[in-house]
Amino acid sequence: MTKTERPRRTTLVRDRPLAVPVPHVGSLPGMVASPPIPLSTAGNRPLSRLDKVGLSLFILVLFAFGVITEIRSAFQVTRRTDFGVYVRAAWAVTAGKDLYTVTDDHGWHYCYPPTFAILLVPLAEPYQFDTQTKHLPFAVSVAIWYVLSVGCAAFAANALASGVVPGAVRWSRRWWYARLVPVYVCIGGVGFTLGRGQVNLLLIALVAGAFAATVRGRRVASGAWLAGAAALKMIPALLVLFPLVRRDWRALIGVALGGFVLLGVIPATVWGIPKTIEMNRKPVEVVLLPAVASGGDQTRAIELHGAKSTDSQSVRAVVQAWIYPDRKTRPHEIDPIASQIHWSVSGLLVLITVVVGLRRLTPDPADQLIFLGCLCTVMMLLTPVSHMHYYAMVLPLVSGLWLRGVARRPNGVSADALTTVVLIVWGIATATPLFAGPTFDRLRECGFGTAFTIALWAFGLRTIGRESTTAASAKPELNAVRLAA
Q1: More reliable by pLDDT, 39 or 452
Q2: Residue 18 has what pLDDT?
Q3: Which CA distances in Å does 140 have to 144, 146, 471?
Q4: Spatial separation of the C-alpha atoms in residues 381 and 377, rounded to whole Å
Q5: What is the C-alpha to C-alpha distance for residues 13 and 17, in angstroms, rounded to an integer?
Q6: pLDDT greater than 70 at residue 287
Q7: Residue 138: partners with Cβ closer than 8 Å, 6 or more residues away
């Protein structure tokens, strides 16, 4: 092998390569050269006229929905957004107030780690009686947040697709379908997140960054991305199982370093070390513990973790609704049986996911993404208060399943028929309870979307490590794509 033919360094996962990039197909011993995939195939062609019309309509819908969100959030008597909570907490940072006691115009409290409020200081909004503090108009802040959220969704879709289908010709039908279809499937949760001004798309962008760094062999960076997710919301701390199951110790070092910087160094520059420790302890005391167990600080019971406080679709909320079908007479206190079933089911989901990961996870990027997506799905189901907009957190799993099918059909733009049907059914089943009305409320409360989400999680675990018939027949072309990438 000449100097110019020396293969580049491989990226390892559990001491096995995710991919083996080489300069020439078939130059390594044992590799059989495959004929190049012609660029004239259907997948590598530019978007058709119908595709362009559909893409244009989607962009138009995003713009129109942004206008509606702007009006609902900033130009109505009652603001219909959760975004005010974040910018009010950001104002508390600048004003030296306790960000866990200030409230937005609805009387809602901030429920996240302190770093997020610090980073939102440029968009901070004071109380109306504070006329001295200069700040951006709330309408401008809402618009900026909407654009940032759409950008996070685009970043996540591109990062996930690039990791699994790196050989797709840029701007081709295959390239676009790999990125847009998962977003379409998750449009219910994504749209609900955008409309409420929530943080889920930023969270998914951080998870996607972790996956992209893993595929590229940047293990410490991948852990730092996961630390960013955990510093945004507390529940993504579960995702530390991703590097732990894969025995990726460098990624765990990245998690530790990222957590130290995000939860320690950055807040310490604002409050000092003693106050930083207090600020990091507060969300555990006033948010996490009261939601997990009875007692403790109940200031957020009515607005967050009470049985009738939110449109939750967690296992606990579903069992509570089955025990007390009449919402009017349903108590605010969670029934102990509902809590016991919730934690039993959650523990079982975590255990099964970990066991499957330890026994069947392969270095294939698609399998890695599906496993990470299953963890995200369990994370969504495990939290005692699982809001309707949390369906956006299933995007990594949907992307993993879709992209796995696309990667195994080198000349196509879609996954296999079974995967396509499963994703369509899940998308419809989880979007339906988002509509307003007694019938849709009852579907949500009886666990309609929750049951389909658990089924999708099971389908995802089932696909890990499995070689499809299509993949076996397309192996020569698939090897060519992976090597050329």
Answers
A1: 452
A2: 43
A3: 6, 10, 49
A4: 6
A5: 6
A6: yes
A7: 73, 74, 84, 87, 125
Integer Cα distance of 110 and 99 in angstroms: 7
User: Are 5 and 24 contacting, i.e. CB atoms less than 8 angstroms apart?
Assistant: yes
**Helices 138-164/83-95 angle, 10° precision:** 110
Q: Which burial class, exposed, middle or buried, applies to 181 when counting CB atoms under 10 A from its CB (0-12, 13-18, 19+)? A: buried
Cα→Cα distances 290→294, 317, 346, Å:
6, 15, 18
Alpha helix ranges (H) inside 233-272: 241-245, 249-260, 266-271
- pLDDT tens digits along 382-422: 998 888 899 999 999 999 999 999 999 888 899 999 999 99
Q: What is the pLDDT of residues 159-185, one digit of tens each?
A: 999 999 998 999 999 999 999 999 999
Q: What pLDDT score does 40 carry?
A: 44
Q: Report CA dihedral (436, 67, 69, 180) to the nearest 10 degrees.
A: 80
* Structure-token pair, residue 54: 């559909």
Give the DSSP per-residue string, 363-427.
S-HHHHHHHHHHHHHHHHHHSSS--GGGGGGGHHHHHHHHHHHHHT-TT-SS--HHHHHHHHHHH
CA–CA dist 320, 381 (Å, integer): 15
At 451, list the tokens: 């049951």
Q: What percent of the chain has pLDDT over 90?
A: 69
pTM for the model: 0.88
Phi-psi domain of 362 (left: phi exceeds 0; alpha: psi -120 through 50; beta: other): beta
Cα distance between the two ends of the chain: 20
**Is 328 strand, coil or helix?**
coil
Q: Of 15, 311, 89, nearest to 192 (Cα)?
A: 311
Measured distance CA(134)–CA(166) in Å, rounded:
46
CB atoms within 10 A of CB 457: 23
Q: State the pLDDT at residue 246.
A: 96
Q: What is the DSSP letter of 182?
A: H
**Most trustworthy range by pLDDT among 130-144, 449-463, 465-479:** 449-463
φ and ψ at residue 13, rounded to 5 degrees: -130, 120
Q: How far apart (Å, rounded) are the C-alpha atoms in residues 121 and 126?
A: 11
Q: Which one-letter DSSP state was computed for residue 303?
A: I
Task: Kindly state the tokens that stand for 423.
Answer: 């994703």
